[in-house]
Protein: HPF/RaiA family ribosome-associated protein
Organism: Fontibacter flavus
Amino acid sequence: MNYTENYKGVKIDVQAVNLDISEAVQAEIRASIDKLSRFTNNINALDVYFKNDGQGNNVTRVVSMRVGVPGPDVFAEERGEHWVTMLKAVTDKNIRQLQKGKD
């Protein structure tokens, strides 16, 4: 499932290879933009990638997020079991990178 939307002037591009993304996960992506916007008001785009890594019983879920801002973009990745939990973790990682960039 791939989809693109515009949320509060930010272009969201979601790519999920052979996966369906629930409304709850889509809502969490929007909440991530709200949270990131508290640390920078220059977000141009948000790219989120969902994938299952591995085969059989050794499948690991992976979420990657790239925040498009002026200058170098920030990027984070998280592995785990629950999409929403991993989205919150990559959002927090990206916030830390944005804060370091201000220093």
Notes: Residues 83-102 form the longest helix (20 residues).
